[in-house]
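Figure 3 (text version): structure tokens given as input.
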């Protein structure tokens, strides 16, 4: 069934995600802070680009957003809610804090709008290929109304619990990734210094217990010293900052994550803030 949708934020993730909605035949209106990008998207996908979140959200059944951080979420959600109709649903795909998710949910409820926090994992490739993992927090009946839409770019769309549970699950995801990338960096660097063929090593151990998404998707580019793509170190440190704040509240210990965060700070100091997170290996090669 064709639905009226809005998508706010057309970055490396949002642009292809909104594209999947249009390809499925939905009526999609988009907003982006840089208007030229929204106009480019509309020209490519046949949707409508508008100058504000409120304009995009007006009369939309579901408003989806993917922006930068907590402050962006607050600003864009506030503007969108001003244009949303009673009974509409706001879905936030931004990786943000559980606190801001609860804050927006409360504001949405005051306008008779439903809210879901739904951060994603899978990177730009996952967004482009429609194979993201989507972790959702909110009410089950609201989730049921949007799951088919989210499935257009998500291969795994799961309700994790009440509002904020999606963001908390994404924090677990980032904590796990941080340790995995550092371990993979150390393993590849060890293989190279031991005189082994690192690509052959990766091919062999990826068939066993060491296998991971990071190994499959970043191992070879790490060997080739290529990092001008993917998920930026700057964004990873933003995400880990959210994890540390939540850990201070719930008492969780994150010793390895804290170490990796400081290693990422060293990558930033070398001018690698926009490099892919797999660039951790450069600290081992260049020491």
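Below: residues designed for each position.
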């Amino acid at each position: 069934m064709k639905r009226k949708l809005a998508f706010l934020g057309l970055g490396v993730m949002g642009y292809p995600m909104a594209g999947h909605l249009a390809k499925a035949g939905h009526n999609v209106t988009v907003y982006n802070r840089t208007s030229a990008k929204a106009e480019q998207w509309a020209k490519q996908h046949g949707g409508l680009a508008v100058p504000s979140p409120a304009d995009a959200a007006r009369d939309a059944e579901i408003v989806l957003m993917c922006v930068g951080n907590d402050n962006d979420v607050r600003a864009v959600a506030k503007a969108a809610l001003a244009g949303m109709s009673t009974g509409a649903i706001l879905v936030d795909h931004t990786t943000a804090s559980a606190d801001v998710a609860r804050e927006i949910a409360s504001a949405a409820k005051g306008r008779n709008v439903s809210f879901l926090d739904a951060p994603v994992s899978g990177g730009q490739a996952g967004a482009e290929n429609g194979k993201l993992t989507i972790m959702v927090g909110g009410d089950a009946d609201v989730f049921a109304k949007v799951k088919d839409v989210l499935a257009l770019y998500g291969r795994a769309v799961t309700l994790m619990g009440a509002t904020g549970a999606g963001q908390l699950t994404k924090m677990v995801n980032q904590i796990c990734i941080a340790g995995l990338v550092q371990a993979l960096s150390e393993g590849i660097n060890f293989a190279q210094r031991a005189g082994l063929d690192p690509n052959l090593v990766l091919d062999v151990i990826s068939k066993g217990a060491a296998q991971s998404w990071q190994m499959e998707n970043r191992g070879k580019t790490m060997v080739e010293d290529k990092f001008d793509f993917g998920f930026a170190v700057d964004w990873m440190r933003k995400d880990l900052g959210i994890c540390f704040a939540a850990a201070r509240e719930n008492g969780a210990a994150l010793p390895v994550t804290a170490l990796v965060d400081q290693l990422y700070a060293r990558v930033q100091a070398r001018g690698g803030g926009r490099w892919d997170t797999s660039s951790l290996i450069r600290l081992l090669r260049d020491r």
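The chain has two domains: 4-162, 168-285.
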